[in-house]
Amino acid sequence: MSLSLVDAAAVLLGALAAHVGVNALNEHHDFQSGLDLLTQRTPFSGGSGALPAHPALAPLAWRMGVGCLALAALIGVGLLARHAAAWPVLLPVGLAGLALAAAYTPWITRHPWWCLMAPGLGFGPLMGWGTVSVLVGVQAPAAAWWLPMVSFFLVNNLLLLNQFPDVDADRSVGRLTLPMQIGRARCAHLVGLQSGLAYALVVGLVLAGRLPVAALAGLLTAPLAWQVWRGAVKHADAPQDLLPTLGRNVALTLLTPVLVALGVVVGLR
Fold it and tell me: Is residue 260 domain-shared with residue 241, that is, in the same domain?
């Protein structure tokens, strides 16, 4: 199978456009709602903090958000035109991704379980399945459809843990996140559960013969996951003490999929 560089570039550009679009809309909404002025900012807070410093840029943030989502949609239409066989996957995934991006701040952040799963859905199955359908095809091996779930669990954890310091500020503007609904202490254990599910998925795919043994390289981050879970449990209600754990969680989220992917590449050579 040969990889089309045009398709790969289009997929990458579409993913970046969607990411920039949802971030810009979230930035605009948080400024308009007053959330930016209430949040005790940490290096892991959502948004850049640019609009409170430069309020006149708010309309530009809105236009950037809408424009980038429109660009992502146009790229999706172009990929659909190039890959008729990908329609059964790419069309519903693309529509779901656009809906998720548009609804995240005004609606999803007021529904705790959707708020938990939305980031992982966007960066995991939706992005992963769309990419597979274009670059590999709908007849791709089963592992290609399962592996995006690793990112699903880890990205869920990333956003969930980052919500811990922002509970009071989020509540003041009408958000309802999972740490508000079930408490930060219970959410800390949910962080550990989701990390465990990510590792269990990789191990299960290797045992089933769907991935090469080298994919177990992803398990090298397990000690880091343990530190994140223990830190979340210990400092759930102490946001300032939680900051080192938030940093480790970012590293965990980035490193684990990369190590799994490298293991797959090495194992298939």
Answer: yes
Contact yes or no for 53/60 (Cβ under 8 A):
no
The reply to whether 147 and 133 lie within a common domain is no
Residue 83 sits in the same domain as residue 33: yes
Structurally, how many domains does the chain consist of?
A: 2
pLDDT in tens, the chain (269 residues): 567 899 999 999 999 999 999 999 998 988 888 776 676 666 666 555 678 878 888 999 999 999 999 999 999 999 999 999 999 999 999 999 999 998 998 899 999 999 999 999 999 999 999 999 999 999 999 999 999 999 999 999 999 999 999 898 889 888 999 999 999 999 999 999 999 999 999 999 999 999 999 999 999 999 999 999 999 999 999 988 999 999 999 999 999 999 999 999 998 77
| 84 and 148 within one domain | no
**What whole-number distance in Å separates Cα of residue 180 and Cα of residue 5?**
45
Q: What is the pTM of this model?
A: 0.92
DSSP state of 211: S
Tokens of 130: 């769309």
- Structure tokens given for 61: 């943030």
